[in-house]
Amino acid sequence: MRIRSLALAIILMLCSAPSFGQSSPLEYRQLHPDARKNIVDEIKIDLQRYYLEQVGFWARIFGGGATLAAVLLAIVGWRGFSNMRNSVLSELQRTIRDDERFLQGLQLTVDLAIQKSASAQFRRAENRYNLGRLEAAARRLDERDSFTHAERDVTYELLSDIGSDPDILKEAAFRDCLEKACDAYYKADVDQHLDGLDDKFRSVIFSYPALTHTLMLAYGLRLVGDVHPSDKLKERFDFYVQACERNRIYEEALPYLLVRAHSEKAAGWEKRISRLFKDVAYLPDRELEIFFKRLDTRANRKEFNSSRQEIESQRFSAFATEYATELGKLKARLDAVRG
Fold first, then answer.
1. Residue that finishes a domain, picked among 97, 113, 129
2. What is the C-alpha separation between 151 and 234, in angstroms, rounded?
3. Which domain holds residue 89?
4. Torsions phi, psi of 229, nearest 5?
């Protein structure tokens, strides 16, 4: 009965609205179906709020009715307001004809809302707990020279699971764990897990220089050290080269760009190397020093953890040998600065 009383009060307010103004008449049935649905839905929402909030009867009439009136006026104007009230009444009566059915639907809505809220609260608490587990797992990867498949997998699964929480993604602790995992997977040549993290968290990785650097090194090693690199691998590497530029660590990517062009020898490779050498020449002295440190370390490596690293070193060495003159001129510039 209270629903019908409230609905009747709202309808009476509509019927008693003044009919002044110059707006042209607008029949309810002439409205777009979506607009009609919005009007009736607004009335139903007002009725639901009445039960949920348990406010005073007359307060609800004035508050809800005024809100509803404002919505209707915005759509049809005063004169159209008057013309459409009978159609609204008819459709509203069909909506609330069966009080019991309406109350059951409302109760179901409330139950679902409570369940959703409780589930979200539980999920947040669970993610906090798992973030602690992730920190411990990532620390083990970072502190050891090797790790088991189980340790590798549990870290990856925890990152994937709690990384779906937008609030967790903002946590510095999560980013630190992601960086440790990426670094560990890169050093251990765990391609599948590293690719999975790239697929899931590229937007996070892209924004942080340390993570960007690690992924560029990982994909640079694979690109230069693999016999037949895939197109997808090339896409990943190119993306992180751009990320290095964005994060102002382009000098870290330049050695791999030069060696890649030299080893692939694709059409126009010599011109490509000439353009890249111009980029190297424009580097400030500090960044040029970093460039040579990375180049020399890989060209002169004596110990290898994989055949991929050995091929990488051979190709860096071949590049450094063929372009010794150009590299020597740049090193002379550094020597002059050092005095």
1. 97
2. 29
3. 2-97
4. -65, 140
Q: Which of 295, 298, 333 is nearest to 312 (CA)?
A: 298
Last residue of a domain, one of 46, 65, 97: 97
Enumerate residues 6+ apart whose C-beta is below 8 A from 239.
Answer: 202
| 215 shares a domain with 93 | no
Distance in angstroms (rounded) separating the CA atoms of residues 148 and 141: 9
Residue 271: which residues within 8 A CB-CB, separation 6 or more? none
Residue 189 domain-assigned (yes or no): no
Domain co-membership, 339 together with 219: yes
In a domain, 190, yes or no: no
87: left (phi over 0), alpha (psi -120 to 50) or beta: alpha
Q: How many CB atoms lie within 10 A of CB 320?
A: 20
pLDDT of residue 285: 94
Q: Among 50-59, 169-178, 212-221, 259-268, where is mean pLDDT lowest?
A: 50-59
With 50 as the cut, is the pLDDT of residue 3 above it? no
In-domain check, residue 121: no
C-alpha–C-alpha distance, residues 104 and 312, integer Å: 69
pLDDT digits (tens, 9 = 90+) for 274-290: 999 999 999 999 999 99
Percent helix, strand and coil across the chain, each rounded to 5?
Answer: 80, 0, 20
Residue at 186 is within a domain: no
Q: With a threshold of 0.85, does the pTM exceed it?
A: no
* 8 Å CB contact between 197 and 185: yes
* Number of structural domains in the chain: 2
Least confident of 54-58, 165-169, 219-223, 321-325: 54-58
Residue identified by tokens 């179901």 is: 108
Query: What is the DSSP secondary structure assignment for residue 30, as one 8-state letter?
Result: G
